[in-house]
Amino acid sequence: MPSARRTYTFLGPEGTFTEAALLQVPDAAESLRIPSSNVNAALDRVRDGSADAAMVPIENSVEGGVTATLDSIATGQELRIIREALVPISFVLVARAGVELSQIRRISTHGHAWAQCRLWVDEHIPGAEYIPGSSTAAAAMGLLEDDAHYDAAICAPIVAAEQPALHVLAENIGDNPGAVTRFILVSRPGILPARTGADKTTVVVPLPEDRPGALMEILDQFATRGVNLSRIESRPTGQYLGHYFFSIDADGHVGDARVADALAGLHRISPATRFLGSYGRADAQAPVVPEHTSDEAFQAAHAWVKGILAGDSLGPETLVEASPSA
Ligand SMILES: O=C(O)C(=O)C[C@]1(C(=O)O)C=C[C@@H](O)C=C1
User: Fold this and answer.
1) What is the per-residue pLDDT across 24-65, written as a single tens digit (0 to 9) for each?
2) Fewest Cβ atoms nearer than 10 Å: which of 21, 27, 107, 251?
3) How much distance in Å is there from the Cα of 72 to the middle of ligand 1?
4) What kind of fold does domain 1-88+180-190 have according to CATH?
């Protein structure tokens, strides 16, 4: 029986880096793809069932975390990350035909793109004014509107290639040629992606208040079980000044005993801890697992404790008899 066609949404319009990330998903090219105007709108489409999954940016190697995504998945109806994708980032500066570099005064793009091209802009268009755009592609397409209030946009090369009314004023304008953005595919809670051996687990941990050393205790849950962290970011909860949650990526799958044990520890320290998913790493790199934190070591340890409890369940007389002071 042919499987039903999935509906994906992404930070649009067509031509964003997020769309490039979505097209890495094997069935995305043949599926229905609905552009969303911002990260929240994309995630809400998943929450209300009008999309099966949303591709959204989560972090960039130069500019760091995408706060709109970090905050939106940390609160509200629960969601799950089921996949990640990496996209190398390269930017072009585009304008309408006939506009020269020397005429550019106002540039629009996504905030993360602007941050990655700051040095280039300072050098080549000193004093240029930044006009925030909802995405790189939206900024580029906005140039074609009659009432466009900026003269150029920073976007992906594909937008210029597919839009003849735009022309490229400069290529490779990113300050860091090796820039990469990481994207996540987010779905409603359901079937957990299978363990691949090279996985990542994402959690959101509210920092318990008035508890000295709480952050240390949280980190300790991972450290003592040999679980490496690849990202940790603090974000304000928005409730009041000084109240934070931590967004954490850990190596491994909740199906790995060491990760499950670490999550149980987190829950004891911070009961509102939110599990956001276990999913295969885009780079397929398996972590180095210390011997004493392998599944086998956990099984042996649990069996040992079980044995003790079974022995002791013979009754208090056994304990009294065994006591040297008797
Ligand atoms: O505007 C886009 O094209 C996006 O996909 C968003 C986004 C981001 O949020 O970081 C993605 C990659 C680039 O780093 C710049 C912008």
Assistant:
1) 999 999 999 999 999 999 999 999 999 999 999 999 999 999
2) 27
3) 16
4) D-Maltodextrin-Binding Protein; domain 2 (3.40.190)
Q: Give this prediction's pTM.
A: 0.92
Mutate to test the pocket of ligand 1, among 62, 108, 135, 162 (most ligand atoms within 8 A of CB): 135
Q: Phi and psi for 312 in degrees, rounded to 5?
A: -70, -20
CATH of domain 191-309: 3.30.70.260
**Averaged pLDDT of the chain:** 93
Report the nearest-CA residue for atom 15 of ligand 1: 113
CATH top-level class of 92-171: alpha beta
Rounded to the nearest whole angstrom, what is the distance from the C-alpha of residue 114 to the centroid of ligand 1? 10
